[in-house]
Amino acid sequence: MLEEKVALVTGGSRGIGRAIALELANEGADVIINYLRHRTAAQNTAEEIRQKGRQAHIIRANVGEPDKIESMFAEIADKFGHLDILVNNAASGVARKAMDLDERGWAWTMDINARAFLLCAQRAVRLMEGRGGKIVAISSLGSRLVMPVYTAVGVSKAALEALTRYLAIELAPYGIAVNAIAAAAVQTEALNVYKFNEKLSKTWQTTSAGRMVQPEDIAKLVAFLCRDESFMIRGQTIIIDGGFSIAPLIT
Amino acid sequence: MTIEIIEDVVRNTVTRITRKDISQFTRTTTFKDLEADSLDIVQILVALEDHFDIEVVDEELESITNMGDFIDYINRKVAEKTARSA
Fold it and tell me: Of A13, A36, A37, which to mutate for an interface test with B (greatest number of B Cβ within 10 Å)?
């Protein structure tokens, strides 16, 4: 369990991040919810956490901007003094084919999905000094499978997974475990970008496990990676997809 | 805050992010006229939310057809925030 732990979930107001924030609170953690655009959703998630008897705090910050990351961690240091868990979940991206990608779209996607992981980890480690910690990054199967108009996000997630491995080894001596989770299509609003692709939507609807991945499936895996039971898992990207990636044509 | 000030901020933000000359912005201009892509629109919304400390609700933007509607929407959000904090 995660009693007395302080966790930061980036992009924690809705969807997968919300489910993770609530699950960590279920396990006893106090949770800081970072969000960018959906303040009401962040406030609602924080209120749900408080109803579980845990502390919740919301911070608006675009993790694509280094100075906003700095301000966010300064606020965490001021309010909590330390951090035990970082869940790097915030993600964004431009949905285009490689030949249609421009520099702005590439930079926006990489800054939020990959660079922010490095900068948040660097700042989080300072708040974990002397106490150890857990870092979990949320990736996706697009890091290794080619999906329509997913180029920039897929590449950014591949970078995130590689960074997970490097951080895991570099931070192991400090008692900090680093892992990533790569999910297949998860039932959230983010999937709306593909709602006009009927064939793709149908492919994702079912898996060998009989259903799509739900945010709560990922949240429970994050909680496991934050508990001491997962001590020997280091630098791994754990796939959670109901068997989709090994048998995409069998449902 | 007057609607003139809000209009000025919206005009400057939209034209800066879409990389268009300020003369191309009128109340009847549309995002399509400005060739704004989805990233432009997200960046415009984030910038305005930052500037005015408001929350723009994506679903509420669906009925907006031009910059005049957009300015009025931002003005309404700023007024709501002012009323809440009064």
Answer: A37
